[in-house]
Amino acid sequence: MDYKYLIREFRNTNVSLDDRFQKVYRSYWQMGAARLCESFCKTYFQHLEELKAFDRVDVQKIAVRLYSVAANSRGERKLHFSFSTKMAHMLQPSWPVYDSLVAKFYFLPDETGTFDEKLKSLLSSYAFLVAEYERVIREGLLVPAIDAFRARFDVDGAFTEVKIVDTLIWRFAAMLNSGGLKNGTICYS
Predict the structure, then answer these.
(1) What are phi and psi of 22, to 5 degrees?
(2) Do 109 and 81 touch, CB atoms closer than 8 A?
(3) What are the domain boundaries of the chain?
(4) Where does the chain have alpha helices with state H?
(5) pTM of the model
(6) Is the separation of the CB atoms in 79 and 138 below 8 Å?
(7) What region does 41 belong to: left with phi over 0, alpha with psi -120 to 50, or beta?
(8) What's the distance, CA 179 to chain centroid?
(9) Residue 64 neighbours by CB under 8 Å, 6+ apart
(10) Rounded Cα gap, residues 63 and 69, in angstroms
């Protein structure tokens, strides 16, 4: 499983130099879909490696740093907040990942406006997500689903409860997004 490989190898390799790690990471976190240029990816993995040395991770600082780098071959800068939270998650696996599917699941607002306005909105949504995942876990709302996930998949300690909740929400939202909702009924097959 790609995620298990990433978690296992993350602390044991220099991610800014390890081509295999980067290939698996790019595939797992769907970096190809964003059509990121090589210089962005190089900076991304350098920053990820640099941040290993710190105890605390700051999603806002990651987002600002990534925004300072051209994201594509046209030299455009973009706020890749999802990739910022993916980086933060690799550094702190107990932190959730924010992406468009999770945002749709929770009906989080679309970001509009200037960079600062978008970032402020996204950080607010992310703070909600952190608190919501903590609440779901603290109150045991998904214990049967988490236990079933652990029984069904060989995830051992690589998957934190937050990662399992994140995966369940992401897969459910992806299913709905790809036509799993028909006439007001969720279709699982």
Answers:
(1) -60, -40
(2) no
(3) 2-186
(4) 2-10, 19-28, 38-51, 59-67, 81-91, 100-105, 115-138, 143-152, 161-175
(5) 0.90
(6) no
(7) alpha
(8) 23
(9) 119
(10) 10
Residue 182's DSSP bridge partners are 185
**Contact partners, residue 180, CB within 8 Å, separation at least 6:** 186, 187, 188
Rounding to the nearest 10 degrees, give the CA dihedral for residues 155, 102, 113, 95.
-40
Q: Both tokens of residue 175? A: 């299913």
pLDDT tens sequence for the chain (189 residues): 799 999 999 999 999 999 999 999 999 999 988 889 899 999 999 999 999 999 889 999 999 999 999 888 888 899 999 999 999 999 999 999 999 889 999 999 988 899 999 999 999 999 999 999 999 999 999 999 999 999 998 887 788 999 999 999 988 888 877 765 555 565 555
Look at residue 171 in the predicted model and tell me its pLDDT.
Answer: 86
Q: How far apart are CA 14 and CA 51, in angstroms?
A: 12
Cα-Cα-Cα-Cα dihedral sign, residues 132, 133, 137, 141 = positive
3-state DSSP assignment of residue 185: strand
Query: What confidence score (pLDDT) does residue 96 get?
Result: 95
Tokens of 38: 């090589």
Residue 40 CB partners (closer than 8 Å, separation 6+): 66, 69, 70, 71, 72
* Residue-wise DSSP of 139-165: TTTTHHHHHHHHHHS--GGGS-HHHHH
